[in-house]
Amino acid sequence: MTTFAELGLAPDILRALDDMGYATPTPIQEQVIPLALQGGDILGAAQTGTGKTAAFALPLLQRLLPFANTGTSPAKHPIRALILTPTRELAIQVEESVKAYCKHIPLRSLVVYGGVSINTQIPILKTGVEILVATPGRLLDHVQNKTLMLNQVNTLVLDEADRMLDMGFMPDLKRIVALLPAQRVNMMFSATFPEEIRKLADSILNNPTFIEVARNATAVTVTQVVHPVHHERKRALLTHLIKTRDLKQVLVFTGTKLGCNRLANELNKLGLHADAIHGDKTQQERIKALDAFKAGTLRVLVATDVAARGIDIEALPFVVNYDLPHNAEDYVHRIGRTGRAGVKGEAISLVSESETRYLKDIEKLIGTPLEPTIVPGFEPGVADVPAYASRPQRIERQAEERPIEYPVERPAEQVAAPALERSAPRAQRPASRDALFDSPYVPSAAPATPPAANRQLSRKPVAALFRSPVKPESSEQ
Ligand code: AMP
User: 222-385+448-466: what fold?
Assistant: First the structure.
């Protein structure tokens, strides 16, 4: 097994890795570090959780070692490396990692992002920093204010480039790249490679080496479980799963900010400590919720895709797709929050009838079918509004629970299948489609090894399960 020392990293960097408890390089690190140390451009196909931050940050730091100094003059600390990320959360995490990696090296780093006062960032920029981690919009604010100079940047990293394009940062990226010296090293990482990403890579990278984490060599080990359920029963099923499986730290994705707030409120009412993060929350609120979640004092964090992007939580065991994403690539990003750096994780998707088409897109993208597991008491054809409920009660409940139809951002594209393990453990799966309706659900805290990735499953389409109403045996909340 290769060691970090064998990859050619300097002793001060090795010491920091030792402090952090990194014993051996992950596959992406093993491939990227030697190439990046030589100064070649890199195009990396890797999702979060594979160790890609260290893959680009360690060689970047090593190449800055000759410039490391303890001088006080700002002129001795120009910005030499620029790392761009799509979200503040990811920017914060990347900079935290960079800081930890250069613990024993006198190189300075800073993170700048929008949504907070620019004035607190300016004094630190004035003192000089070698490594700047930034979201594109705030970086351009600083450029406009003349509070930073980019003319000495010798390394550019674009992290989660696909998400930057999704979020409309293309014009900002072009403006930023135009401000950088032509002579520089470029590294670009993306989980997916649609046409626009390839075009962006062509325009920025110079004869790059393409590095892809092999499908099964990845650090990501995510077991994927799909529970078909009537849309009105989703909240009850989520509550049931959290309680019966005693899930202690769950990241739950919803499709809208409204749904996110509402679900967090409802879970709290049901006695499950939950908070919401989405784009309308202030940065302080987001950081507070995230910190509580990381510390384990908040049991359920309900999030939208944008807010959760890049969240890095050591050994996050469970991710729940309360609403399936309409864009299949978002599914890959979501479930990449768990199973990070070799720790096993489980991604649970609650799929209602109207979402089965999105499930198909997801299966196409990841290149493997996801076999449904029905949870007894939550059979897909059955709503939870009891027949004896009064008409106003039923109408109110149905209006409250109606699934929200939001526009598809863009069509899901057929791209290189991401590195994921597949589906629920076999032992948990019903043998036949009839058995789907009477097999006991056996929750597993530690999922068994999933079966071979390419096995073709013959099964009833998930959509068909919604057409056979079955009376629930129990109705738990
Ligand atoms: P990333 O994909 O860069 O977001 O990294 C995911 C997680 O893996 C982070 O918590 C890192 O600190 C951790 N990590 C990265 N590289 C290693 C390594 N070689 N050994 C152990 N943990 C690592």
Answer: Rossmann fold (3.40.50)
